[in-house]
């Protein structure tokens, strides 16, 4: 019987992100999807609620524009503060690690070897890996396995803020334009339908890029958005009737 030679390709799959690439991708995905979803749902809830209280197109559009601007600024500021705090923490941890490597190199080498032993390497291999990584780039070696940080790729607060602001604005434009340009008899229903479709798309996209189950993400997005619009429309109708 002849033996077949099987070629085995070693290394990560080209279509799968790994390590810092995956963390960076998920951070951007989180900011973009949260921004778009907030823009869609909050603006849709606002304009639908106002539409329940009045048929005045100008009042509805003014409320929607105000909500869009306020929401986009709020998202940008919140993301900037959040990511700035994270970046400050990352810098402080890296500085602490840099100081320890300078003051206690032997202890840090032993710590690094211990971390690799905890991952399943035997004592000899773990120590050899720790020595080689330390010789190559000690700070990066500790930052990676101990802190989960890439010293050359810290999260940018400004990038995150702009991403959230733009995503929120793009999401908010859909319900705003829909309710502004459709006639009074259909604008609420068309807005609800378009928002449901948009939320289904963002839910699917988040699941696709994050390698999660699409059905669950879509159901969460669409269900939450419709619930928000139903509540705000009911409140708007109640207030419009009684005021």
Automatic annotation (TrEMBL):
GO terms for cellular component: endomembrane system. This is Predicted Fe2+/Mn2+ transporter, VIT1/CCC1 family. It comes from the Bacteria. The chain crosses the membrane at residues 31-53, 59-81, 160-182, 188-210, 222-240. Coiled coil: none annotated. One of its GO terms (molecular function) is manganese ion transmembrane transporter activity. The keyword Hydrolase does not apply. It is a multi-pass membrane protein. Residues 1-21 are annotated as: Disordered. Pfam families: VIT1 (PF01988). Residues 10-21 have a biased composition (Basic and acidic residues). Its main location: membrane. It comes from Nocardioides psychrotolerans. Keywords: Membrane, Transmembrane, Transmembrane helix. It is found in: Endomembrane system. GO terms for biological process: intracellular manganese ion homeostasis. CDD domains: Nodulin-21_like_1 (cd02432).
